Amino acid sequence: MNTEHIAKYYTSIPGLADRFDRTARQWRFQTASLEKYEAWKTSTRARLGELIGMTRMDMCDLRPELQESVQLENYRREKWLIQVEPDVWMPFYLLMPDGLQPGEKRPCMIAAHGHGTGGKLSPAGRTDIPALREPIAGAHLDYGVSFVQRGYIVLCPDARGFGERRESSGQGDEEPVFLGSTCNQLNMMAISLGLSLTGMWTWDLTRLLDYIGTRQEIAQERIGCCGLSGGGLQTLWLAALDERVSCAVVSGYFYGYKDALLNLYNCSCNYVPRLWEAVDMGDIAALIAPRALLIETGDQDPLNGERGVDNVREQVEITAGAYRLTGAEDRFAHHIFAGGHVWNGGQTYEFVDRWLTE
To answer: How far apart are CA 117 and CA 162, in angstroms?
Structure first.
């Protein structure tokens, strides 16, 4: 089509950026006192739960069902199914290290997946599936296996819209459909019902924590969660809203909303109505203090936004204020590594061992 008659484009995003500057972070973290911080934490958790639709979710019996058990080198991989809402089901892998003794309790790690990973298959290290070999190797996506090899009990769930939870528009075994998701479809429909995909993901992981609570082999006071990219989103929100998580590792998902999600555009699962008016990522992570939190950032990760690591550091400093206020500076770490949008793990395992096993 001939567009020579268009002399200028009149875009709207600059106006939205101006609105962001005027209205963002109305529930921001305040460092005035420990007492005010605790009050802010209580009220902000409740308000965010309402904002993302957690308060509208429906409780039900878990009805856990073991579907498969496969013995692998040094661990057993079990496939389970639980009900997270009435007739809404979440499949997950349970990775059990060999050598558990009767009555022994082990620390536990939830390994949440990101996009383009085939859901739970990548953190569970399913390199026996040809389509997954390159993604797993390239971005080090098999972090669930890394944890079970270190003696942790690991759960690798499918988030809604991924893996075995893809909607009809995205089902199939051919590439790239197999590695894709139905995020956009789900979030648009959820928003129209007062929900959000962020809220549904967080809810599902709280139900997974309910299931973890039924397992006698798991040390209930030593539960962690980790994830890259969309798995980092899930980890951030779960740890912020549920104190059963003692240690969190957020990889490739920590930056200011304006640079990374307004000036850039990412998957629709990142967007929640009125969220930016309320908080930024640093405020959400401030809800985790004083529990252990590690953030890892690739210095060349394009999702950091145009200002790169500076956009990340601004949010890290917000969160660091909460850890200073609570006297838990040693429980908060930011690892910047040379690289892109990948799981690095260079400081992760030592950090998690320190706070979940020692």
So the answer is: 9
Contacts of 248 (CB under 8 A, 6+ apart): 224, 225, 226, 235, 236, 238, 239, 288, 291, 292, 293, 294
Overall pTM surpassing 0.90 (yes/no): yes
CA distance 134 to 206: 31
Q: Residue for token digits 């040390």? A: 219
Residue 276 tokens, joined: 């930016």
Q: How many CA atoms lie within 13 A of 294 on its CB side?
A: 26
Sign of CA dihedral 305, 310, 311, 316: positive
For residue 245, what are the CA distances in angstroms to 118, 192, 228?
25, 30, 17
Listed in sequence order, the residues at least 6 apart from 87 whose beta carbon sits closer than 8 Å to its beta carbon are none
Q: Encode pLDDT of 210-243 as tens digits.
A: 999 999 999 999 999 999 999 999 999 999 999 9
Estimate to the nearest angstrom the gap between the alpha carbon of 214 and the chain centroid: 23
* Closest by Cα among 171, 238, 228 to 198: 238
| CA gap 106, 217 in Å, rounded | 6
Strand blocks (E) in 15-87? 65-72, 75-85
Q: In sequence order, what are the residues at sequence separation of 6 or more whose Cβ sits closer than 8 angstroms to the Cβ of residue 79? A: 66, 67, 68, 69, 91, 92, 93, 94
Burial class (CB in 10 A: 0-12, 13-18, 19+), 103: exposed
> pLDDT (tens digit, 9 = 90+) per residue, 93-141?
999 999 999 999 999 999 999 999 999 999 999 999 999 999 999 999 9
Distance CA 142, CA 185 (A): 27
Helix axes 230-241, 34-51, angle to 10 degrees: 120
